[in-house]
Design a protein that fits this description.
The protein is about 30% helix and about 20% strand. It is an alpha/beta fold. A ten-stranded mixed sheet has the order 9-7-5-2-10-1-11-15-19-20, sandwiched between helices. The protein binds inosinic acid (IMP).
Length: about 425
């Protein structure tokens, strides 16, 4: 039965949550495999807004079990708040519905302080992180200085690690970063004691759970966070997040045979956005970009920052298709383009007087690349009540066809609004 991975094909915020929510109806497990509470999606279910940061969108479907795999980083306090917030909205989270890999690395208060203090001193050269401590938590993981979720069960060990870490981080924050943050091991341990009580019941062996579902021919959906161009190895480095966002990482993170994957679905908007710093060749600082931001309500779910907007970049998308192995695309927010007389598609770039068709490896070169656009006629109709491909205006159909053809992908679906009924599978 299908093992499907859903990934963002741009710089995040493509609307993956909507697609996962749709597909989750017929799946056994939804697994998140990287990132932390830097991600966030707002779903509209029965007219009610539900904000999710760490918990997979599958949680909104009855009977679906959700897992966070080892490659996710969890801020225990933020996570408990998210569980409580969902409960207040009538969505009860229990270990029956949600499991957390014991290998998960924790984001601790000093990680957030390191993240924001580093950003504060990068004058004129900020990364524009979400300030959630994501980078420092992944750093500690690979430096073997991290605290894993399962460590909450070994408090003596935890006491010694936290004491050592707090001493080191306090010194670094003060002397190297000139920061006024100072942490107490006792306070962190007190919070971790509460976290242990709340979170240990959720701990599971994700790899074994997957093996079990595979053995029963069950369906598994992997939910990517952020987007391909924020991948730490292949994105627009250093303006990236600190995890691998590509589909292939699902196998490493969750611990399963990559040959099991049946299908990889990429999600992209009908235009392009980026939040935070970093090169973005098709960014439009004029009226078109502003209109996309206002109509598309392009403000970050986690930080509220206005997103940078611009036309669809097929050069960047082609790279995303190749890096992930995307077979099918879902194009979201098609409705936002209603009213543009002409729609532009970047099909190559000019760099140093030469036309190129591949996103350069150097972010300095990406920043200098000038997009070459193809133009298509737009449509003026309001799409919000469209419920099938056939109901789309001819020019909108043509837009989807052209994008699919140029990227050599099937168009799996499109969306024309935030509610469940507005995600349409072709
Ligand atoms: P970090 O992940 O907080 O370290 O931020 C690194 C970069 O990734 C910044 O440019 C963020 O704006 C961006 N980023 C992180 N998570 C998301 C997301 O979920 N959507 C869009 N951008 C994100």
């Amino acid at each position: 039965m299908p093992i499907v991975i859903v990934v963002g094909a741009q710089w995040g915020d493509e609307g993956k949550g909507k697609v996962v929510d749709y597909l989750a109806e017929k799946t056994d497990l939804v697994v998140r495999f990287q990132g932390g509470n830097n991600a966030g999606h707002t779903l509209v279910v029965d007219g009610k807004k539900v904000a999710l940061k760490l918990i997979p969108s599958g949680i909104l479907r009855n009977g679906v079990r959700c897992l966070l795999a080892s490659g996710v980083v969890v801020d225990p306090i933020a996570f408990i708040q998210e569980i409580d917030e969902l409960s207040r909205n009538g969505i009860t989270i229990s270990p029956k519905r949600l499991g957390l890999a014991g290998e998960i690395q924790l984001i601790l208060p000093y990680h957030k302080a390191l993240d924001t203090s580093r950003e504060a001193i990068r004058e004129g050269d900020k990364l524009g992180t979400t300030g959630r401590g994501i980078g420092p938590a992944y750093e500690d993981a690979v430096s073997r200085l991290g605290v894993r979720l399962i460590d909450l069960a070994s408090f003596q060990y935890l006491e010694s690690v936290i004491a050592r870490q707090v001493e080191e981080k306090n010194r670094y924050l003060k002397s190297v970063l000139g920061s006024s943050f100072e942490f107490s091991a006792e306070a962190i341990l007190a919070d971790l004691k509460i976290a242990a009580e709340r979170l240990l019941p959720y701990v599971t062996n994700v790899s074994l759970e997957l093996e079990d579902v595979f053995g029963r021919n069950g369906d598994v959906l992997f939910e990517g966070a952020q987007g391909t161009l924020l991948d730490v190895s292949h994105g627009t480095y250093p303006y990236v997040t600190s995890s691998n966002t590509l589909a292939g990482f699902a196998s490493v993170s969750a611990g399963f045979d990559p040959r099991r994957i049946d299908r990889i679905i990429g999600v992209c908007k009908a235009y392009c956005t980026r939040v935070g710093e970093g090169p973005f060749p098709t960014q439009d600082n004029g009226a078109d970009g502003e209109l996309m931001r206002q109509v598309g309500q392009e403000f970050g779910t986690v930080t509220g920052r206005p997103r940078r907007c611009g036309w669809l970049d097929l050069v960047a998308l082609k790279k995303a298709v190749r890096l992930n192995g995307i077979d099918q695309l879902v194009i979201t927010k098609l409705d936002v383009l209603s009213g543009f007389a002409t729609i532009k598609l970047a099909v190559s770039y000019m760099l140093d007087g030469k036309e190129i068709s591949e996103l350069p490896i150097s972010s300095f070169d990406v920043a200098r690349a000038i997009p070459c656009y193809d133009e298509m006629p737009g449509w003026s109709e309001d799409l919000s009540s469209v419920r099938s491909f056939d109901e789309l205006p001819i020019t909108a159909k043509e837009f989807l066809r052209v994008v699919g053809k140029l990227l050599n992908c099937d168009i799996f679906g499109f969306s024309i609004g935030p509610s469940r009924e507005q995600t349409i599978i072709v």
